[in-house]
Design brief:
It contains 20 helices and 4 strands. The protein is mostly helical. Among the domains are: about 90 residues, no CATH class; about 55 residues, no CATH class; about 130 residues, no CATH class. The strands form 2 sheets. The protein has a two-stranded antiparallel sheet. Helix 10 runs parallel beside helix 12 and helix 17 crosses helix 19. It is rod-shaped. The N and C termini lie far apart (about 105 Å).
């Protein structure tokens, strides 16, 4: 609460027994001419005015100025009271600003500032120590980073660097080997990135990545993967939120959501079995492009399985014994090969639907005419339907013509046979 200095001064003046000698005042102009600098006013550690150490004890020699300088007339009591009130108002304003920044232990008002005036010279020229509120703010920042147990470290830094700013303090906690153990534990991926020569993320960027990962796992109800270990692994290996989203979508939307595709994937890639498909997809060791190719191969294999055919990732040949054709073999280009050639899931679905329809007759005719003609089995059907090979198409047409010729009594090369509806 501000004191009405004018009234207080007038009361004291009226109570005095005799008229005091008028104080000698030095004009502003004479102060500028004086060789001794005018006393400068600073704030000491507690927020009260303090006289600069270099001006303490300086003698006001304005009365001895050259050129007939005159001592100005003494100010009236009203003028002195007005000046004092102005100074006190300024101190009140400064104290209010300090109160807003300091904790209850460090807040001081004008009265406390006046009491501390005797110690002002000892703190002259010294920077203001960070008030407790700065440390409280840093504690809240660290808690938002999920870093705890740093109270003693903060006290040590404060003792060693009493004038440190909050920004400098965070820098010490993050990079100084004497204090950064907790920080490194919390942001472990940054340590690994730094060792690998990669740029590190700021705490804010790090936390933003973690929040992005968490949202992906929440949307797919995958709490198992919402761990700091997974987050650190992703950040260390440059797997961002988009990558994690694509990996989870590969596992759930394209594999686990389709029975046939899942069956083919398990057969092709047993190391990424059913229980570990998502984990395998999220493992940064498995690069995303390679995983995408595996899923494409599984989708092609799934299309074959859906039509009652076997699925193989690689090119393979197997004896056809389950339909009684001992001289017919079934081969396959391999789902992995077809995926590498750009065959899509939709193309595989349509292609294997056609293959499943013509393959029984084609294999039967191949067994009949296999002594003189090349056979047409699954391998050739895949070449025709999924690769578009004209040579495979000609094999199928030749077998069809030979069979039609048997019913018409003409050679398989006759014109009528060529015009007839193909058998296969």
């Amino acid at each position: 609460m501000a004191i009405n200095v004018r009234k207080e001064f007038e009361k004291r003046e009226a109570a005095k027994p005799s008229t005091p000698k008028p104080p000698v005042q030095t004009s502003t102009a004479n102060q500028r001419e004086s060789r001794t600098p005018a006393p400068t006013q600073t704030l000491n550690l507690y927020g009260t005015p303090a006289t600069s150490a270099r001006t303490r004890g300086a003698v006001d020699d304005s009365s001895s100025k050259r050129g007939g300088s005159k001592i100005p007339a003494a100010k009236t009591s009203e003028q002195i009271a007005a000046d004092a009130q102005k100074i006190l108002d300024e101190l009140n304003a400064i104290s209010g600003r300090l109160d807003a920044r300091a904790t209850s232990g460090g807040a001081v008002g004008p009265a406390a500032g006046a009491a501390a005036g005797a110690d002002a010279g000892a703190s002259a020229g010294k920077k203001e120590v960070i008030p407790n509120v700065a440390y409280d703010t840093i504690q809240k920042i660290l808690e938002s980073y999920r870093i705890t147990g740093l109270a003693s470290v903060l006290e040590t830094i404060r003792d060693e660097y009493p004038e440190i700013s909050s920004t400098e303090l965070i820098t010490l906690l993050q990079f100084d080997p004497r204090y950064n153990a907790k920080f490194n534990e919390r942001f472990a991926a940054n340590v690994a990135r730094q060792k690998a020569g990669k740029p590190v993320y700021s705490p804010g960027e790090y936390l933003a990545l973690e929040q992005g990962f968490q949202k992906v796992f929440d949307s797919y109800n995958l709490p198992t993967f919402k761990t700091q270990a997974y987050y650190d692994k992703f950040i260390e290996t440059d797997v961002d939120v988009v990558d994690v989203t694509e990996r989870v979508q590969l596992a759930y939307d394209r594999i686990l959501g389709d029975v046939a595709t899942k069956s083919a994937f398990q057969k092709f890639f047993s190391s990424l079995g059913f229980s570990d498909i998502v984990a395998g997809m999220l493992d940064p060791v498995n690069q995303l492009p390679a995983l995408q190719q595996k899923v494409k191969a599984a989708e092609i294999g799934g299309a074959a399985i859906r039509q009652g055919l076997t699925a193989s990732e690689l090119a393979a040949t197997e004896a056809q014994t389950n339909v009684g054709y001992t001289n017919v073999t079934r081969g396959t280009l391999g789902a992995g090969v077809l995926a590498g050639q750009g065959v899509t899931k939709a193309e595989a679905e349509a292609g294997y639907k056609d293959i499943a329809q013509i393959l029984p007759t084609a294999e039967k005719l191949s067994s009949i005419y296999g002594g003189t003609e090349q056979q047409y089995g699954r391998l050739e059907a895949e070449q025709e339907r999924l690769q578009g090979l004209a040579s495979a198409q000609r094999k199928r047409q030749r077998l069809s013509e030979l069979e039609m010729a048997q019913f018409t009594g003409r050679s398989g090369l006759g014109k009528g046979a060529l015009k007839a509806t193909p058998i296969i």
